[in-house]
Specification:
Strand content: 15-25%
Shape: elongated
Radius of gyration: 20 Å
Distance between the termini: 51 Å
Helix content: 25-40%
Number of helices: 12
Order of helices and strands: EHEEEEHHHEHHEHHEEHEHHEH
Largest sheet: 6 strands, mixed
Structural class: alpha/beta
Number of strands: 11
Length: 332
């Protein structure tokens, strides 16, 4: 097993997608299953690491906007998170040219003191949740609204359940449960959502009752909330708040491309001020024909309002049509 650093450069969106979709891409075929990888990105003038994982099996999944440049793609497992730290600490062992020695081409780090230093710093700052780096509403990394040191500290000490996205996931789960559907939550989010949503033990599925190939299941199990009836997905929701709008839409598009015959109604749930961004993304040529007809926007406010409806137990998922807006309906 080798230790490596996967440096996303200033592609903050790629950094977030690696964690969200549990996949790592490389421009060479050196990294192998079992390797320990520290994930890093350039944030302002610093190179920060906020996660590490072990490489798993090879995959054809390349969910990044520039995915064609990654010739070697592997799923990841045993993902761990930390309060982002500056990996220039490696200058303590690698000297002035530490970045060339340890980062270039995700080469194996053969220097044990460097590996020990990374492990020590990561373990010291370890957290139980992912701290994404923010991209501005235009998705332009050159003018990205990066998380700076003070913000990192603030995010690290906050309990993740205070995040609006977790609260909205909990509301979506509660609404679906009250309507009589089984609920699927990604394993990484489940404990945080269940801290907000106090529910019956059997409401949340522990395993997906679906018979699909492994690539389809890997995509489905990372969708933020699913309403399931029997062996069918009734509704799929991606909740977007601090991460890129693109990543959630891409996950939905992957699902539709992998299983074009599935009749799934999908929704991007986001603050109302991000509606225009969602509509613009759904209107992209790459999504317009595959995803736009079956995917719509719902605002946080609409979900909060629906959750207060006293007659939910007597309603079906069709009520969402009154709250959702598709590209064809939008004036954007």
């Amino acid at each position: 097993m080798s230790t490596r650093i996967l440096h996303c450069s200033s592609a903050i969106e790629n950094y977030n997608i690696c964690i969200e979709q549990k996949v790592a891409g490389f421009q060479n075929r050196g990294p192998q299953p079992g390797d320990l990888v520290y994930l890093a990105a350039k944030v302002g003038k610093k190179t920060l690491c906020g996660a590490r994982f072990k490489l798993d099996k090879l995959t054809d999944l390349k969910p990044w906007p520039d995915g064609e440049k990654y010739v070697h793609s592997l799923k990841v497992k045993e993902v761990e998170y930390c309060q982002p730290f500056d990996i220039s600490i490696l200058s303590q062992t690698g000297g002035k040219f530490w970045s060339l020695k340890y980062i270039q081409a995700s080469k194996p780090i053969s220097d044990k003191p460097a590996c020990d230093l990374l492990d020590q710093e990561f373990s010291l700052k370890k957290t139980d949740h992912f701290i994404p780096f923010n991209i501005d509403s235009d998705g332009d990394n050159d003018t990205a609204n990066f998380v700076v040191e003070d913000e990192i500290t603030e995010l690290a000490v906050k309990k993740p359940l205070t995040r609006d996205s977790i609260k909205v996931q909990a509301l979506l789960a509660e609404i679906g449960d009250r309507m009589g559907y089984k609920i699927w939550l990604p394993k990484n989010d489940r404990s945080r959502v269940l801290e907000v949503w106090q529910t019956k033990v059997n409401s949340v599925l522990q395993d997906l009752p679906l018979n699909y190939d492994s690539d389809t299941l890997n995509t489905i199990e990372n969708i933020d909330v699913l309403w399931i009836k029997g062996r069918s997905i009734v509704r799929a929701f991606e909740v977007e708040h601090t991460t890129s709008i693109y990543s959630g839409i891409l996950r939905m598009a992957d699902l539709m491309a992998l299983q074009p015959n599935l009749n799934i109604k999908a929704h991007i749930v986001a603050p109302i001020e991000r509606k225009e961004k969602v509509m613009n993304e759904l209107s992209r040529p790459v999504f317009k024909h595959v995803l736009a007809p079956s995917c719509s926007f719902i605002s946080y406010d609409s979900i909060e309002g629906l959750s207060k409806e006293k007659m939910l137990e007597y309603m079906t998922d069709a009520v969402l049509e009154a709250f959702s807006e598709s590209v064809k309906d939008s004036a954007i």
